[in-house]
Amino acid sequence: MPALDPQKIRADFPVLQREVRPGVPLVYLDSAATSQKPDAVLSALDSYYRLHNANVHRGIHTLAEEATALYEGARRKVAAFINAASAREVIFTRNASEAINLVAHSWGRARLKVGDRLLLTEMEHHSNLVPWQMLSAERGLEIDIIPITADGLLDLAEADKLLALAPRLLAFTHMSNVLGTINPVAELCRRAHAAGAVVLVDGAQSVPHFAVDVQALGADFYVFSSHKMCGPTGIGVLWGREALLDAMPPFLGGGDMISSVQLREFTPAALPHKFEAGTPAIAEAAGLGAAVDYLQAVGIDSIHAYEAELTEYVLERLSEVPGLTLYGPPAAGRGGVAAFTLKGVHAHDVAQVLDGSGVAVRAGMHCTMPLHARLGVSATARASFYLYNTAAEIDVLVAGLERVNNMFA
Amino acid sequence: MESIYREQILDHYKYPRHKGQLDPADRSFAADNPLCGDRIRIDMRLEDERVIEANFSGDGCAISQAAASMLMELVQGKTLAEVRQISREDVLEMLGIELSAARLKCALLSLKVLKVGAYGLQEWVED
User: Fold this and answer.
1) A189 is a catalytic site residue
2) Domains of chain B
3) Cβ of B59 and A349 within 8 Å?
4) What would the pLDDT profile of A74-104 be if each residue is shown by its tens digit?
5) How confident is the model over B93-102, as a mean pLDDT?
6) How far is the alpha carbon of A357 from chain B, nearest alpha carbon, in Å?
7) ipTM of the complex
């Protein structure tokens, strides 16, 4: 596995060359919200519109064939990237949230009835809570919640107790966008299946950062977003087992998702098109395909190893900052996310002062209100890391935090 | 950008004026800014439609807390009619800093709470 050269990587990302203000270079530590994009992705978007723009499927002309090849080619690249058994199992959505909504609407409405139980966790992003809450309100379902431990891990003993209530679905995140916790997906899938539950995993924070093999993990549905993995916004992925997807009714209706239409009825298309109504995000798919190529060229294992090293350094440096409380497990069990509070300083003020040093961090609840309630804080500041970040940037972050402390002392 | 943490703002943040709940109070109202977790409550004692005492309480960023502290100084002794005249421009002028759209919400949260109270609307939040 080749070691990653961050300077070489940085040269691939045009935005990393810019200054936030004259003389203040950008230190981008907000990749858990969205990643920056390499030249290869920007070129794919640009050349799609300059050279190949046409609607996909059933076009006979050259451009339509090229656009279709780009769109379906991206699907095959994504399928290979996550080791899906077939490209038919890869559905393009708008983002990870829409992918979860698709499952809630289609699978949930077809299969769940009053009194059925759903099992979620305390560390979920709102996108893996609200669709289930909406479905629950509509169908009269019961929602159970797996709590977290003081270390920010899922409480597996509690999980077992709740699985004993025979939930129909377990939905949880592969990696927390606040705590950085990497959950034991394969183990949870095994226990959930033994209890008879279908499993949906939110991979928005994992697919960009380490190798994900959906078959080895054993989930039934797995969702993620392009824009957190160096790809464009506006496209995400739902992977599902073919047999499950096949048995599900369509989600949105319209063009492209049908095999035939009469005036009063229709026959849906086969997978994956059954779930892709209307003209899809073609340029974005081409961009996502380029992002997958880019991550594979760098090497997803190299990226993971580099980030693990960086995470260890981050946790060590942050532990030196007076008044800083860090949330989440120790470096060994976590990804490149560090959410923290500084004593006596609101997270917004931390972020604002850091912005003065060119450091971009996020402040607030990061779409995890229930998790913040559990942690007993109204807001945290979050620094998150990706393949283009460096130890020197972490030093800038820590120096910035020292300035915050001095200002508010 | 750091000019927004000018000395006076940090001073109001570190040493807030008129902070702490009033009990009893003639009017109490609260609101929060759920995205940032900022929360402000204002209690007022009135005599003949005049504010004889007003205090704020709550947590938030330096901007929201300083704005609340300055606003409390401003309203002491004012009639409710005068309180109703206080505008967002007045608050921004007191703060004396340029704010981005996101931080404007922090700056104006306490004014929003005050206006609800001054117009006699009740917006009780249990806690």
Assistant:
1) no
2) 2-118 (3.90.1010.10)
3) no
4) 999 999 999 999 999 999 999 999 999 999 9
5) 88
6) 10
7) 0.83
Q: Which two tokens stand for residue A333?
A: 């069990």
What does the buried/exposed string (b/e) look like for B39-65 if buried means 16 or more CB atoms within 10 Å of the residue's CB?
bbbbbbebeeeebebbbbbbebbbbbb
- Residue A217 CB burial class (10 angstroms; 0-12, 13-18, ≥19): buried
Cis peptide leading into residue A330 (ω within 30°)? no
As a whole number, mean pLDDT of residues A108-122 equals 98
pTM of the complete model: 0.93
User: What domains are defined for chain A?
Assistant: 6-30+299-408 (3.90.1150.10), 43-296 (3.40.640.10)
A127 close to A200: Cβ distance less than 8 angstroms: no
- Residues A297, A303, A306, A311: what is their CA dihedral angle, to the nearest 10 degrees? 160
CB-CB contact of A230 with A208 (8 Å) = yes
Closest Cβ–Cβ partner in A356, A378, A407 for B37: A378
Phi, psi at A80, each rounded to 5°: -65, -40
Take residue B82 and report the two structure tokens written for it. Answer: 């005068």
Measured CA to CA, the distance from residue A369 to residue A124 in angstroms comes to: 9
- Which residues on chain B are in Cβ contact (under 8 Å) with A378? 36-39, 59
